[in-house]
Design brief:
alpha+beta; two-stranded antiparallel sheet; 13 strands
Length: about 350
């Protein structure tokens, strides 16, 4: 197996996961890189249900050239269960953003790694949604101070905002930020390490048991529901651990072998590498892989950059969200963005485990 970087979920104080520190992270609000042109609310709406997608994760992955000194790839997903169709990606959005070393948003010196965290850097011209951290063009009609991406998030956030919302700014009460679980996933740092690193320290830090992790993974191969983890009795789990003719054993055995090495991996990163598919690549992936669209900016080929593993689902606490693997493809040159464009959409393939019966 090729040398790759593996990503693991780690507990981290939220002040160290802001854009000032260029984090790779899971959940919470997105740490926006380019602050002059944020994705519009329309760009982040699900094409099926029209709900706003939730921020899933971002990976800090700079290229070795002048215009990619800072580079971030973002993934957003819909949280409506009915929008998840097997091997279909329309409810997922992947975005790329990048900046040179000398830019208008961040200092040239690197952020601190210890002591006090650097404060979050907010966009000057754009207000952010108080609930999700994305572009917030709508204002609270009462206080005119809180911004939202749309009515859905404003309604969900009202139970918190109503405690501080007032038309009289002198009597406004500032409350600590309280995330809404229907909008934000739990927040974790993604710690990227070589697959040759000793991961024993990471394993000790997490409260997810590896043995239970693999039992859940075995269960999903039959059920086709990677995110649906149930507390089944041992006798019920046992029949899943003996293998099943309903899945392609060859591909899943390879997948299982690599997962056994580091059961808590949630990201596999290898630019221009090979995807670790979870099921038969001939039937469910070949057609999609042959139709990966070229970069909309430069017309160049897209290449595989990283994949999101089903183990990530354990950290989301949302049974509506489901996948086998998500393979992210980006412009092979990570071409420069126009001056008026802060983000460009990239491409992904979502592969699921499908019950053949």
């Amino acid at each position: 197996m090729q040398d790759i970087d593996l990503g693991f979920a780690e507990h981290c104080e939220s002040e160290w996961l802001t854009n000032a520190h260029f984090p790779s992270k899971l959940g919470g609000k997105p740490a926006w890189l380019h602050l002059g042109d944020l994705p519009t609310t329309e760009a982040l709406k699900c094409k099926k249900c029209n709900n706003q997608k939730s921020f899933l994760c971002q990976i800090y992955a700079p290229f070795d050239d002048d215009y990619n000194f800072h580079r971030m790839v973002y993934v957003f997903v819909c949280r409506t269960e009915s929008c998840y169709t097997a091997n279909e990606n329309s409810n997922i959005t992947v975005l790329r953003s990048q900046l040179p070393l000398h830019n208008e948003f961040y200092p040239d010196v690197p952020p601190p790694e210890e002591g006090e965290a650097a404060p979050e850097i907010l966009p000057i011209k754009t207000k952010l949604c108080l609930a999700c951290g994305c572009m917030g063009p709508l204002k609270c009609g009462r206080c005119k101070k809180a911004n939202y991406c749309g009515a859905q998030h404003q309604r969900l956030h009202w139970k918190i905002h109503k405690l501080s919302c007032t038309a009289d700014s002198s009597s406004a009460v500032k409350l600590p930020c309280q995330p809404i679980e229907e909008i934000l996933f739990p927040e974790w740092e993604i710690d990227m390490n070589s697959d040759e690193d000793d991961n024993s320290a990471k394993t000790a830090k997490t409260d997810i048991d590896e043995e239970q992790e693999m039992k859940k993974l075995e269960q999903l191969t039959v059920s086709g529901k990677a995110g649906e983890f149930q507390n089944l009795p041992e006798s019920e789990l046992e029949k899943y651990t003996k293998g099943s003719e309903e899945i392609d054993d060859k591909h899943f055995r390879k997948f299982r072998k690599e997962c056994d090495k580091d059961p808590l991996q949630i990201i596999r990163y290898k630019r221009n590498g090979q995807v670790l598919w979870i099921a038969d690549t001939e039937n469910t992936i070949k057609e999609q892989s042959c139709n990966i669209p070229k970069c909309e900016l430069c017309g160049g080929e897209r290449e595989f950059e990283f994949q999101i593993m089903p183990q990530m689902l354990n950290y989301l606490k949302d049974a509506n969200v489901d996948w086998g693997v998500i393979a992210v493809y980006t412009c092979s040159k990570s071409c420069p963005l126009p001056n008026d464009k802060g983000y460009v959409e990239e491409f992904c393939i979502k592969q699921d485990i499908v019950n053949n019966q």
